[in-house]
Write a structure and sequence with these properties.
InterPro entries: Amdntrnsf_FN0238
Structural class: alpha/beta
Protein name: Arginine deiminase-related protein
Mean pLDDT: 94
Order of helices and strands: EHEEEHHEHEEHEEEEEHEHEEHHEHE
Shape: globular
Pfam families: DDAH_eukar
């Protein structure tokens, strides 16, 4: 199993804005005062286009799908929460916490991927769990170590333990389950997605160990990463607030490996952390300020990795 891919699906926004339905437990979202919805969307589109162009420049195969005005899906720019694509040709559809995010699931995207030469064998659909208010938001909730067959998951209102274990049984992953917290107005609250505080590369892992309040859980997670020979690059909670945990390793041309992050994430890193990362991969960073502020997600959330086989 490969850990990184050269092919990425991204959804270009048409009506991006702050989603009030996700703000109830995504504490990274902010209201941008004084900006019209049109301005917010135009800024998000400009950030999106510049980001795609940087990825394509180094040879990442980016498939861009335009969002539609109807249904109203303010968070469609984050496709990795509702779908994942696997090397055996499986496509997984996930149950989403916010009702207006469920409308992001689009069958036509699967047709488009098949037109691009990807093979889809089976669709695994967990979305019925929504009826029981049970959620697992894709590779936002699940950090998959494909090579070592492990799935890391920080439990939250958007990541249900039983459903996560069911996923692991279906796909033969060993679950690594813990709770991760952030400080919000002096209170410790669960972080909504695992991929905000942790990134798994081929040979490294970026993690905010300070988010894992339980010492036993923290040790278990770090031991698991070390046991797979990953160099652990520790980041702080302040850096998590700048989306430094929300990175993704991808492949460019000639199998060259890159780690992708936002400009605010990059600027928050120390020289030592940058050197640690650059020992493994080249860094690509792009300004995503509007997307991060309104969406409460960053570079990683915008990229759905495609591992499907080709025809």
């Amino acid at each position: 199993m490969k850990q990184t891919t050269n092919s990425i699906l991204m959804i270009r926004p048409v009506a991006f804005r702050m989603n009030e339905q996700t703000a109830v437990n995504n504490y990274y979202q902010k209201v941008l005062d004084g900006l019209s919805p049109e301005t917010v969307n135009a800024k998000a589109q400009a950030e999106f286009d510049a980001f795609v162009s940087k990825l394509r420049k180094v040879g990442v195969h980016v498939i861009v799908v335009e969002d539609t005005l109807e249904p109203n899906t303010p968070d469609s720019i984050f496709p990795n929460n509702w779908i994942s694509f696997h090397e055996n040709g499986d496509v997984v559809l996930y149950p989403m916490f916010a009702e207006n995010r469920r409308a992001e699931r689009r069958e036509d995207i699967l047709d488009l991927l098949e037109d691009e030469g990807f093979v889809i064998n089976e669709i695994m659909d967990y979305t019925l769990a929504e009826e029981a208010d049970i959620f697992l938001e894709g590779t936002g909730s699940l950090l998959l170590d494909r090579e070592n067959g492990k799935a890391y998951c920080a439990l939250s209102p958007r990541a249900d333990e039983e459903l996560m274990i069911e996923f692991c049984e279906d796909f033969e992953y060993t679950p690594v389950i813990f709770e991760a917290y952030q400080t919000v107005n002096g209170e410790r609250k669960l972080i909504y997605h695992t991929n905000v505080m942790m990134c798994l590369g081929d040979t490294f892992a970026v993690i905010c160990a300070d988010c894992i309040d339980d010492k036993k859980e923290r040790k278990m997670v770090l031991d698991s990463l070390r046991g797979d020979d990953k160099e652990i690059i520790l980041i702080t909670e302040e850096q998590v607030n700048n989306f430094a945990g929300n990175m993704l390793e991808v492949k460019g041309k000639d199998e060259k490996r890159y780690v992708v992050m936002s400009e605010s994430a990059y600027k928050s890193l120390t020289k030592k952390q940058i050197a640690q990362l650059e020992a493994h991969v080249e860094i690509i960073h792009s300004s995503l300020d509007t997307i991060e502020a309104c969406g409460g997600g960053s570079a990683r959330c915008m990229m759905a990795e495609i591992f499907l086989p080709r025809a």
